[in-house]
Amino acid sequence: MLAACTVARHREPRSRRQLRVTGWVTAVLVAAALLWTTPWDSWIIQHGVWSYPSGGVIATWWRVPLEEYLFMAGQTALVALWSLTCQLEMSPVDPPLTLSYRNLRRWAGCGLWLTAAAAGAVTAAVDPHMMYLGTLLAWFGPLLALQAGVGADLVASRRQLRVIIVLPAWLYLCYCDRIAIAAGTWHLSAAHTIGWQLLGLPLEEIAFFAITSLLIANALILATDLRTPGRLALHHIRTTHAAGHSTDPLMHNANRRP
Asked: Of 58, 116, 121, 128, which is least surrounded by CB within 10 A?
């Protein structure tokens, strides 16, 4: 409702374009969330990381309850609509960035998340209590690394917007999760979690909502940033140019005009 009211107030061409882009990107993100999260969710259910009461779900597919699929899609749509509202209400802020700073930000962000993913995989393999948190980092870390490689500097230039998108959504989802766990809707295994809690919510759940909300927000900020297509096109041109200057003689002969 809030997003609809915001859209109705903003009828300028820039806002209409943002609405179209957000709609398409949200549809893609919902599909991506289902496709990417389901194998990991199924795996951690199989290994007893979390469970649900017998007869407490409508149906399951690949061990994952139907309600979990609805939650994946719902969280993506929720964050996307909130992101649309925030982006329409806030003016774009694009501070000048030097080329060296942009590259440093992208490489550092990519390296940081890849390191976190590798550390998560190792700790999950050697310590059963790290199975949830470790596999969470190992599974979703590469996606955040990819986003950082494409445009860590772009999302950094909208850091205030990103905080406004992620923080309320993250807190709301944590609140809903706390109620669900207290009601016995699902249960986390003490053998596969580190046992730290904040206001009754396990650290792993707090990290899950933070990481997934950040993924959605980053994707929407990058997709609606007018600089992103040019950056991807430039990368394609550089790749094609490099292929055209291959040291293989056969490639040179193939590229030579008659």
From this structure: 58
Which whole-number Å values give the CA distances from 192 to 104, 135, 204, 243, in the listed order? Answer: 36, 11, 10, 47
Phi-psi region of 48 (alpha: psi -120 to 50; beta: other; left: phi over 0): left
Query: What backbone phi and psi angles, to 5 degrees, belong to 10?
Result: -115, 105
The yes-or-no verdict on residue 235 having pLDDT over 80 is: no
Q: What is the DSSP string of 34-66?
A: HHHHHHHHHHHHHTTSEE--TT-SS-EETTEEH
Rounded to 10 degrees, the C-alpha dihedral 10/165/167/124 comes to 160
Sign of CA dihedral 242, 243, 244, 248: positive
Q: Is 119 exposed, middle or buried (0-12, 13-18, 19+ CB in 10 A)?
A: middle
> Between 96 and 61, whose confidence is greater?
61
Residue ranges of E strands in 98-234: 187-188, 197-198, 201-202
One-letter amino acid identity for 3? Answer: A
Encode pLDDT of 135-151 as tens digits.
999 999 999 999 999 99
Per residue in 173-190, pLDDT (tens digit) is 999 999 999 999 999 999
Q: Where are the beta strands (DSSP E) in the chain?
A: 50-51, 60-61, 64-65, 187-188, 197-198, 201-202
Residues 155, 221: contact at Cβ < 8 Å? yes
70: Cβ–Cβ under 8 A, 6 or more apart, which residues? none
User: What is the per-residue pLDDT for 144?
Assistant: 98
Mean pLDDT of 21-32: 92
Overall pTM surpassing 0.90 (yes/no): no
Report which of 219, 218, 188 is spatially closest to residue 205, judged by C-alpha positions: 188
CB 169 within 8 A of CB 76: no
